[in-house]
Structure prediction request, 177 residues.
Amino acid sequence: MLGCAAALMLVAGCATPVNSEFKSGTRFGDYKTFALMPLPDKSPADDPGMMMRLAQPARETVVGEFAAKGLKQAPPEVADLAVNLKGRSLPQIEVRNYGYTYPVMTRYGTYTVVQNPYTEISTYTERTLIIEIMDNRSKEVVWIGWMKKDTSGKVTADMLQDAIRKILAKYPPTPSQ
Prediction:
């Protein structure tokens, strides 16, 4: 599950590319059904309504993406695949010190060093969304996709749905992957 429900947050910001890995030798074409594992019901303190606002759109997007790939939703006890959404949200502080020194000649011909103490401090949240796909019989992860964004602000359903679609676009892996 999510260590922090806020990890489902992916909003506007600088995105790293979507990454994915898979277990070699897996025959993805053999999978016909999937079950979405329960989503967390807790929201972070800074956005108490987040899960109420995002759980259903996230669920609908995952189901829609798998249906478009020809898989059918099934009860967890009989599904071929178990799909787990998880992630994390980590506050970050970045300090940039633009301080530099340079010599200045005085009227007496000696040099003194002048320092520019300009420092910039910014804060953002590093948000990671991870989608794990497990073989429900062996209980092994057969595929994982993830995406990171450095952001600030509230998460919207559209932004989360877009991130889910981008990650699941890499499933199933192609032979070149």
